[in-house]
């Protein structure tokens, strides 16, 4: 049996009839790429019982093997496996939507025995989903005895979770199609009136809220007097009471927009102060006239309103963002911490991740504009071959600074007078950062060039961020303040980078800082996301998510005597691995580590010393 989302993955692949990437599936299902990859592992195992399988090719994506096989229809018709959490969520949804439901109907809906439903309902009060006297069970059915305000509170709180929201919207569309149609028309009117456009997740949340309030009011479940109309809602056949209008107004004001703006209750000066803090600390190259500034401002206005109304927005990409933009995540968290203390507000990790996504896009743009890679082309062939190679490379990397083509002698004459990031040559040269390629550029050559170029640009982006970030505390920081002596290891190089990570994490595991699954998740992150953690040359700062098995904060260090190839995608050289474990919203120590390593000759000392105490004595 499969979970509902796993069935959806198979349906997308079946209906598309072509290759789909993990990224496309994550967007389509509104979950993180990590979640999709976990589902794919379960799917591969489950499909074995049907003698079916998925084809997974890194350069293409995923597809069904033999999609015309009739056994696929058996899979689509198979019973859905509802895990415990999903069952409780679905039971709660049905009790909120309908005034009376039977155990038999719920058991049929979830494909489980009636006894399972009975046990799940007992858990409702044990888990404090509802109070002991708020769930009524008789031979005539089951219903909630919540007062109307609490019923609406529970629904509006529950739809902040993506999975509950998706399931709720499916049920609302299926059972209350007319109301859903009217609400959609009203939302279109709001967008048109303000020349705005809701982000898809926010529109979904607004729609679910408005449909549910309409449903409750239509059932004469009023809390307060009938409203005289809200954003011309009555023109679309929607009649809400005053409480409903307030809830829908909150959903509007806390929505994320892709363009335009809505009337706001938070002072724009409040938001502009935060943006100025980010510009000053991170040296962001934006001004109030820039689209990037306005986009960030719109998001922060909605985020401030979410805080004001005590609403949480789920970010399905939170863990991926924290892993992929670890140094930016920490820098922005430190900026927000000061702003929070000053104004007595709190940004959740979901909100921090959204802000990092905005700032990350600005940094990527800045990197491409200001930090192009300088590439020298060396070709020891005739002029025609050399010019052909240069032309093909120009098409492959149009935004980079291409020098040459040079003969070997010409290159030897100019190499010390030019700042060169990468050399692409048709013969072996005694230089660092040289890629030897065929004059005609094979497919393998192009893959190597793209991988190396990505690593160089990512390195420049990290360098730019580190250079721009102004550390708030200027006092000297020592390595021994961040690491314990027993958490540092100096070893020979490993044959496989996975083994190196396992060894680096071992001291933290033995001291009860992390659980075994944290190591597994770190390896998965490098396999899936590439070596994003290699912020400084040959130094990797490896970590997983805050919910992936962290018991308490801790850092360990593994220094190998020579570099190893690190990662499967866009592999790069690594000689030092720092494993960082941190709880939610706590200081990871990443910026402090980088500051120490980049100070004076510390980088060279870290790579060469065989003395653990010398590493502990490093300061910055």
SSE topology:
Elements: H1 4-16, H2 22-29, H3 33-47, E1 54-57, E2 61-64, H4 71-77, H5 84-97, H6 103-110, H7 114-126, E3 135-138, E4 141-144, H8 148-158, H9 162-175, H10 177-194, E5 197-198, H11 200-218, H12 242-253, E6 257-259, H13 268-282, H14 291-308, H15 318-324, H16 326-343, H17 349-370, E7 374-378, H18 383-396, E8 401-406, H19 408-414, E9 422-425, E10 434-436, H20 443-468, E11 488-491, H21 497-510, H22 516-529, E12 538-542, E13 554-566, E14 572-581, H23 590-598, H24 602-608, H25 612-616
Parallel strand pairs: 7-8, 7-9, 9-10, 11-13, 12-14
Antiparallel strand pairs: 1-2, 3-4, 5-6, 13-14
What attributes characterize this protein structure?
alpha/beta; 620 residues; four-stranded parallel sheet; 5 domains; 11% strand; 53% helix; Arc Repressor Mutant, subunit A; PTS-regulatory domain, PRD
